[in-house]
Structure formats: structure tokens, C-alpha cells
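Hey, resending since the last one bounced:
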Amino acid sequence: MRPVLIIVLILIAAYLFMVCPNINRKRKKKMLPFTQTYVAHRGFFDNESDAPENSLAAFQKAVNNGFAIELDVQLTSDGKLVVFHDADLKRMCGDDRLLRDCTYEELQQLRLADSQEKIPLFSEVLSVVDEKVPMVIEIKGEYQPDVIAMHLAEEMEGYQGIYCIESFRPKALMWYRRNHPEVLRGQLSTDVFRDKEGKSLNPIVKFVGTNMMCNFLAKPDFIAYNHKHVTQPAFLLCCWMFPVMRFAWTIKDQHELKRARKFFHVFIFDGFNPLAGMGKRTR
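The C-alpha cells again:
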């Protein structure tokens, strides 16, 4: 019986080692600006308006309303860092191609959600934000996330505003940990087994991702988790064992916001105004 107990204890210790994030208190204090506002998912957007998601207009609206901004970055075929969420252009632009197969000039022929807005360069978004509000920058992970991370770091040289990076892919976070450890980084996660976008993934990849078992490599400063899956055991264990900052994605209404406050410190939202009828945010 004793050998079995020893094996169980070793497995528990190994698991806790793998999922342990960075719990440095000084780095946690650097994230306080994100707790003092709400984070507008892909900008303060409405895909039925002239300010669709990840557009310059949506980012300007977020700045005007004092919201922090979440956005997505990926690379074109000619190495331009652009702001766009999906791997393909179908949903937002009605084009069947993958974004990474297009040059920047080709993308400029398209429009976002039937508006006059185009897919912006990341540098254009930086000009709109102008260090006025915090940014949460997601590095898309479908293709060479470490290369995207390198391009992002080059773009951020000299930027004095408040920002952090996040990704589903530990490889992107590991690149930042090695090359720019001063930048706050977060591990995006969800219950991949319940997520429709994870259907095609290998079961082992699903298990590792859901349980955040690469945290020992990336050492994220925060966990950004799907608020709908807060009952997932690995997430609850992380909340209980480690004093890590937790970002909720993506809050869709006041009811979800109220429920998420029990588990999270920072709230990424879209589809409504979290300040409507509430005044300023209070903790």
C-alpha cells in the first residue's frame, strides 16, 4: 500500500509543479490597471455598425469610453503584423482564403463586415490607442506563434503604455519569457473538450490545454479562462492553490458579469456596455 501512496503523492506533486503559474507579487501589482476598468473584446464593437470587431473605429470607441482593449495579432504572407481574429477571412470579409496566405495589399481590398473599415496594421492600432488605455494583446497560435511574438516585440519597442500579452499557445509565452521577461504574459485556456473550436484537436493536446499543464514552461502571470467553464477542476484548483490573477473571457451581459466576479479579477466583454446604468466600475 505504501508504494502506491508514494506514487500517488509523486503524481500530485508533479501535476502541481506543471500547472503552477508565476505568483510573483511585484508582477501581480503591475496588473492592477486592468482591474480598474473593463476590457473591450476586439474593441468596443458592433458588427452590424460602422465599427466592427478589430477595426480602428472599434478601438477608437473603446478609447473614447475609457475601456481597456483586447485585440488579436497575426502575420500576413509578406510579414506584416495585422489585427484580426479568425484564421480565415470568411466570417468577417466573405473571402475563403486564410489570412496568412494573403499579402497585406491583398487584404486592403477587403472590408470588415460590410463596413468601410479595413483590416488594420497593428502599428495603426497603436497610433489610435496612443498609450491612453491598457491593452491585452492575444498572439494567435495557429501558425508559428513564436514568430508572431518576435514581430510583436519589435513593434512594441519604445511603447510606454500599459499592456500585456496572452495566447493559447505556450510557445508564444515561452518566447516572451526567454526574450522579454519584463512583459506581463497570460495563458489563455478553456475546457477544450467542451469547446466547439477544439473538436479537431488531438485528445492529448485537449487534456494538456484544458488542464494548463505547460504553465511550468511559460510561467504565465495570469490565467485568462472561459468564464462559462469555471467549474472545470483544473481551473478551480488553480484558483484555490495559487494567488494568480484571473481574466474572464468573454462576458456577454450583466448577469454573466455578476456571476464572474466570484472567480475573476479582470473582465473581457463584448455585446453590451458594462457601465450602462452602473456608473464607474467598483470592486
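The beta strands are 39-41, 68-75, 81-83, 135-139, 163-167, 185-189, 222-226, 245-251, 266-269.

Sorry for the duplicate.
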